[in-house]
Specification:
single chain, alpha+beta, about 220 residues
């Protein structure tokens, strides 16, 4: 029985690999074609197959598609680059086809059990302070803090108001507990659509040209 498993054994195991590199893409505009989707995904890896799901009656895209990359790593790279990307004014969702859908709430145990910061005051949160722009004018500190608290512990929130009119200026700052939480919030909320506006979220110090050299003496 030596000849058995060698020739035919490949079939079952490789199909699982195909699934690992198969992407589910939703939120596409109805005008999306396979050709255009191919052009969007191709910069991020080798595409083996593109399939936009069409509505049989209208002949238009139904707003979602499946794309198979050649490797799992390329699929992850495409997710990193394309998830939440804006296409024709809509934010698209890109994930592995067989990935379990994550609950939208915070993951893991709540972080409240950790004691507060020591009275000496925590070090400045240089790399976890976020600048948030294009906020709806109706959003206050509470609303902003709530939005970010899904991605970690919010240390400080400040919506910037115009002193004369007392109106929000449409931007603010949110400080997270760690750089990892700040990056998670950027990944989820930069480009997020709220009340007709597209949020811009980035590290607050990022535009100051990096390491702030010339300080030491």
């Amino acid at each position: 029985g030596r000849g058995m498993g060698e020739g035919g054994g490949g079939g079952a195991s490789t199909s699982a690999d195909g699934e690992e590199s198969k992407l589910y893409i939703a939120g596409l505009p109805y005008s999306m074609t396979e050709h255009r989707l191919m052009d969007m995904v191709r910069p991020h890896g080798n595409v083996s197959e593109v399939s936009v799901i069409m509505d049989k009656n209208t002949g238009m895209s139904r707003g979602f598609a499946f794309v198979t990359m050649s490797t799992h790593a390329e699929a992850l790279n495409a997710i990193r680059n394309l998830h939440q990307m804006r296409v024709d004014g809509r934010s698209i969702e890109v994930r592995l086809k067989n990935a379990p859908r994550e609950p939208s709430g915070p993951r893991g145990p709540p972080m409240r059990e950790l004691g507060g910061a020591p009275p000496s005051g925590p070090p400045p949160h240089e790399d976890s302070k976020l600048y948030v722009a294009h906020l709806p004018l109706s959003m206050n500190d509470d609303g902003l803090g709530q939005m970010f608290s899904q991605y970690g512990r919010v240390v400080e929130v400040k919506v910037i108001y115009d002193r004369t009119t007392n109106q929000s200026k449409g931007y603010g700052f949110v400080t997270m507990d760690s750089a990892a939480q700040a990056n998670a919030a950027i990944g989820a909320l930069n480009g997020y659509y709220v009340e007709g506006r597209t949020l811009v979220v980035r590290i607050a110090g990022a535009d100051k040209g990096g390491g702030g050299g010339g300080m030491g003496g």
